[in-house]
Amino acid sequence: MIGNDQNLDAVRCGRIGVQYAALDESYSLMAVVDWASQKSRIDTAQERQTSGYAIPKLYATFRLGQLVTPAWGDTKLILGVENVFNTAYVDASTFVNMFYATTLTNPLVEVGRNFTMRGQHTF
Length: 123
What we know:
The protein has one helix and five strands; from the N terminus they run E-E-E-H-E-E. It is mainly beta. It has one domain (3-121).
């Protein structure tokens, strides 16, 4: 049973984004925001409250078979910047245990700004 007979509401979270693709489909640009509402309807005897967040991510995809040489076929280079503003946040699904001291691993803070590069080839 939850303290004060509260009903637990699920944390609302989601992802929203927009994408632009060149007319010849040689490249595309995408902006995404992962978000979650504040987690406050909890049993305060066991867990700490966490704040909501909105984390922007930017991606660019380049079709190297069109931009470099047709010999590369359907090879893509995907570049990204995630957590653009280097926001410290706790994922909405993370349990922040009251029985342990606040440390680097309680609550488990998500990765800050990071850069990604990925190659993809479809055979």
